[in-house]
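Reminder to self: C-alpha cells first, then the designed residues, so the page reads top to bottom the way the pipeline ran.
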C-alpha cells in the first residue's frame, strides 16, 4: 500500500506561496538532486534513444531534469518505444483477428494481446509523464524558482532590456 495523504510540498514551493511552513530548518533537511544532464544509456534501443534525444532538451528548458532522473527517463523512453511497437503492430493488423470453427466459419473475433499490452504501457507512460511535468495538468503543479539573470558585458548591455544585471 502506498503512502497516505497528499505528497509533501517542497520548501521552495511553500516559499513561493508565502507559507509559514517554509522554514530554513525544513529546507536544510530536504534532499537536493545533483544538477546536470543525465547521459543516455547505451542499452536503450534506437526508438528509445530517439525519444531521449527529443525529451532531454525540453525537460532541461523546463528545469525539471537532473542527473538522478536518468533511470526514470530511461524507463519512460523504453516504455514509449515498446508502446510505439505495439501501436505499429495494431496499425498493421487491426485490433482483432477471427477465430474459426473446424468448418472454417468465423465463430468470433479475438483481440490481439498487443491491445492489452498497449493499454498497460499507455497507463505507465501517463504516470511517468506526470512525474516529469509532461502533461498540462502536471505542469500547472510544478513551480521552479527563477535563476538570477546572468551578468552581461557593459559594452553590449544597451542592446538588452534594462532589468538585466550589468557586469562590473
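Designed residues (168 positions):
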Amino acid at each position: 500500500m502506498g503512502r497516505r495523504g497528499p505528497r509533501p510540498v517542497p520548501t521552495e514551493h511553500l516559499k513561493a506561496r508565502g507559507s509559514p511552513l517554509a522554514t530554513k530548518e525544513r529546507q536544510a533537511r530536504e534532499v537536493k538532486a545533483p544538477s546536470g544532464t543525465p547521459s543516455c544509456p547505451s542499452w536503450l534501443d534506437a526508438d528509445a534513444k530517439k525519444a531521449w534525444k527529443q525529451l532531454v532538451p525540453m525537460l532541461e528548458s523546463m528545469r525539471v531534469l537532473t542527473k538522478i532522473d536518468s533511470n526514470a527517463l530511461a524507463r519512460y523512453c523504453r516504455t514509449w518505444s515498446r508502446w510505439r511497437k505495439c501501436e505499429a503492430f495494431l496499425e498493421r493488423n487491426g485490433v482483432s483477428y477471427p477465430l474459426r470453427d473446424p468448418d472454417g466459419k468465423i465463430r468470433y473475433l479475438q483481440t490481439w494481446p498487443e491491445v492489452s499490452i498497449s493499454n498497460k504501457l499507455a497507463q505507465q507512460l501517463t504516470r511517468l509523464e506526470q512525474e516529469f511535468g509532461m502533461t498540462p495538468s502536471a505542469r500547472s503543479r510544478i513551480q521552479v524558482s527563477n535563476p538570477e539573470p546572468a551578468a552581461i558585458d557593459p559594452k553590449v548591455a544597451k542592446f538588452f532590456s534594462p532589468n538585466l544585471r550589468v557586469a562590473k
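The beta strands are 96-100, 106-111.
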